[in-house]
Amino acid sequence: MAAVPRVLFVVPGILAGIFVPAVIVSSPKPAPPNSVGMTNLDFSVDTVTLHRGERLTFVDSSHNIHVIGPGQNGQIVNPAPGEPMAGFHLVTTNASYTTGPWLTPGTFHVTCGVHPMTMNLTVVVVP
User: Fold this and answer.
1) What is the pLDDT of residue 1?
2) How far is it, in rounded angstroms, from Cα 15 to Cα 43?
3) Terminus of the chain with fewer CB atoms < 10 Å: N or C?
4) Residue 68 neighbours by CB distance under 10 Å
5) Among candidates 88, 60, 65, which has minimal Cα distance to 75?
């Protein structure tokens, strides 16, 4: 029996994640207060200010998938010291992702790997 390359399963799964939400989900819900919405190609705000210890919730309020993580211009990188958002997080229509608590004051950056030129968020953590 011949082995089937994994790519034959991964690529269709990714494509389904991109296109199926636009067909199945009727209309995205707006992001609730105190969260960051993700519209078609942008975050709902450019900058968000948090107090030390607060969490940040991202809500996909669009028909697009978003892959968010620490970084800028679509380059998801290792988090800066004190940034609770490690790696990348796939967020689909009407789904949300909540970070851990932001414990270190400073300025941090979040981006979307799928929409690199338009989806950049600055997170400012104050004491």
Assistant:
1) 57
2) 22
3) N
4) 26
5) 88
Per domain, the residue ranges of the chain are: 28-126
Question: If you search the block for the tokens 């290792």, which residue do you land on?
Answer: 78
What pLDDT score does 110 carry? 95
DSSP for the chain reads: -PPPPTHHHHHHHHHHHHHHHHHH-SSPPPPPTTSEEE-SSSBS-SEEEEETT---EEEE-SSS-EEEEEEETTEE-PPPTT----S-EEE-TT-EEE-----S-EEEEEEESSSTTT-EEEEEEE-
| The dihedral formed by the CA atoms of 91, 96, 101 and 102, expressed in degrees to the nearest 10 | 60
57 pLDDT band, cuts 50/70/90, is: very high
93 burial via Cβ count (<10 Å: 0-12, 13-18, 19+): buried
Q: Which residue has the tokens 């993580």?
A: 69
pLDDT, tens only, 93-107? 888 999 999 999 999
Q: What is the pTM of this model?
A: 0.75
Please tell me the distance from the alpha carbon of residue 108 to that of residue 83, in angstroms, as a whole number: 7
Q: What is the mean pLDDT of residues 79-100?
A: 88
